[in-house]
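---------- Forwarded message ----------

FYI, see the Cobalamin biosynthesis protein CobD record below. Original note from H. follows.
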Amino acid sequence: MPATRPRAIGLLTGYLADRALGDPRRGHPVAGFGAAAAGLETLTYRDSRGAGVLHVAVLLGALAAGGAAAESAAGRRPAGAAAALAAATWVALGGRSLARTGTQLADLLDAGDLDAARGLLPSLCGRDPATLDADGLARAALESVAENTSDAAVAPLVWAAVGGVPGVLVYRGANTLDAMVGYRSPRYTRFGWAAARFDDLANYLPARVCAALVVACAPAVGGSPAAAIRAWRRDAARHPSPNAGVVEAAFAGALGVRLGGPTPYHHGLEIRPTLGDGDPPGSADLRRAARLSTLVQCAAAALAAGLLLAIGAGRTGR
């Protein structure tokens, strides 16, 4: 069996486990990694880039070593290799929970329960929900669904295909560190620099794969591929993130909505550029975004596994 075939089987099994089970309700390894990172921060924190580099290197180095050890323990047995990657991929993915939470928030907005919607928003993004009305909540949730379709679904699948167990674990760790310390707040402007830059590098290719899949899947939710491409090309570069802007612009164009504008965080207000055309999104648009996210995730899993199988078939044919 070509080495790429167990990897393809493991990747698809991990994806299907996420679709069937979602995130573990208790004892999620990502939460454990976050707790370890927070504990280490009490020792490594200094208001400097060098301290942030050390923080990231220690934590991601540990994940790389652990992932390599797990892959080595699986040995050359195809079933063991597939099982190890399936477990790592499931741990790294958050696609089902993302789409489900987006739909739940849309339901709360339809019911007029803004307090409950504000309580749910922090599970999607780090914005301050206290100042947001219904339109602000819908926009914040849709932007988060768009960005995290890449971060929590497409990127783990890409890194599982490219780097196996170490690759997908290091990616998930990098993304978690960026969410913890990658903010432009007074505390993290320098210390979080390394986490933010590493996350930008790790997401560069996956974000563009995700945007391309948004274009391809747009008609399935009544969207426009041409408008998605136009918004991606015209608006993405104006976003402060080199990757989030690509995916958010593609979603905005595909759904025919306008994203961006004043964006409140706990550390202060940021003014984001406009992405896409049309009206600001509402609950119906958020529900369509959740469906589009689910379709893109499925397409990404099929694409990643298909490429691995094609590579394996090519090697066998030589």
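H. also flagged this: Strands lie at 259-265, 268-275.
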